[in-house]
Amino acid sequence: MLTFTLGTFAIALNHLLLISALALATFVGWRVAKRGGENPESVLFVLFVLGLLAARVGFVVAYWQHYRDDPWQIVDLRDGGFLAWPGIVALLVGALLWARRRPALRRPLGFGVGSGLLFWLVATMSLTIYEQGTRLPEINLRTADGETVKLTDYQGGPLVINLWATWCPPCRREMPVLEEAQQQRPDLTFLFVNQAESMQSVSTYLATQGLSLTNVLFDGSGRLGQAVGSMALPTTLFYSADGRLLGSHLGELSEASLARALEHFETPDSPTTPHSATRKPPCPASATC
């Protein structure tokens, strides 16, 4: 399960865990303050924002080569580019400085920060362990020429599976980034699984946008999204050669966030022939296979 869905509303579980951690920290801090001390609610929110800012700055610094040509991407948080450890360090340092200046805040703030951080760490670790225990779903898909294939037919090499649709703005924005990665990483197999659209509309879209993609597949009923527990688009999944889920990304991918996600896979020392799957259908001239 990658998203929490309520009606038409969907939120990534990792985002929900962050919000839940802040809510828990605020509640615990408030309860402790009732027994003596200052309510840390406003301080906890400021520390939360400070942690997010530091996590973003740390990510940008670590992947600066992907931002230097277009610095405006730094403020585009939709790519989900954050590093946890700079955020945690900034939060703890900020909490210590605040507690030092305001003694009445020390105990409520300490319990609030401690409980929220512990909850987030344990929940995130549990979610990661759960995700990495899931396998490549056994689902039938269709190629652009109407042939039925099994998703597991592509097992045998590392897989990057992108769930997308032409009506989805972040899907359209990230497509050139994925196209470039497909060309630069021949050791990986990229599958572009369209969700519940006609083959004609997808082929027309790719042609008008000048996109040259291989392994474009069609999931007419959206079963793949249901199987992996994601009701949001775009969703990108990263599988090992033996079909084990290594990681996932919900939302738009930038060059930087995709580069980080592809660290799940080792970079070959020299150009290699793409991993051959158990069964791969031929690619027609339209390049939407």
From TrEMBL:
This is TlpA family protein disulfide reductase. It comes from the Bacteria. The chain crosses the membrane at residues 6-30, 42-62, 82-99, 111-130. Residues 266-289 are annotated as: Disordered. One of its GO terms (molecular function) is disulfide oxidoreductase activity. It comes from Pseudomonas zanjanensis. Residues 130-267 form the Thioredoxin domain. The keyword Secreted does not apply. SUPFAM superfamilies: Thioredoxin-like. GO terms for cellular component: cell envelope; plasma membrane. It holds the Pfam family LGT. Keywords: Cytochrome c-type biogenesis, Disulfide bond, Membrane, Redox-active center, Transmembrane, Transmembrane helix. It is found in: Cell envelope. GO terms for biological process: cytochrome complex assembly; lipoprotein biosynthetic process. Its main location: other.
